[in-house]
Fold:
Amino acid sequence: METPLDKYLRLHSKPQTEALEWLVKQTHIRTNYPQMLSGPVQGALLTMLVKMLRPQRVLEIGCFTGYSTVCMAYGLPEGGRIDTLEVNDELQDLILEGFSRAGVSDRISLRIGDAKETLKTLTGPYDLVFMDADKREYCDYYDLVLPLLHSGSLILADDVLWDGKVYQDQVPQDRQTQGIVRFNDRVASDPAVETVLLPLRDGLFLIRLK
Structure:
């Protein structure tokens, strides 16, 4: 349910396109976890960041139904491309239809399968990485992604506050929460990167390779 703050932020950010509105509706109808969508505010931020950074190659780990992918594709410079990874093959038809409706199909390569295995087959360098997949695997993704980057590449890791669980006095011991805790601590102590953690939605980690 949209909070008053969420509504205010949405109304004062760039509005969604018709294609994104369609994708939101279909995600609510056809999936069990529509709250996994990036949403209009984070989506607008992704579009703006891509426009500012002008990356030629973008990697997304965790496509879900393609909302964030479309938002980044809107901001790509001429010739820019996105490789997006998704484990759930049942979402493929919805993802591809969303790309088509948004007019960005020619800028995106969808790769279905386990992200850790797919990452081993990719060659860099990538200029920008958006990470929003299995929280238990964030450290593994990080290790596999770093060799695919260059100095100045940016990683955006989503959901790193995990509904506030990571900074509770008694941090829950479930695997997803502990995966995020390990990742946050790992990144914050890595001398190879510069970091800032933003309280946008459920936490967005900006990680820049030195």
Notes: Strands lie at 57-61, 81-86, 108-112, 126-131, 149-158, 193-198, 204-209.
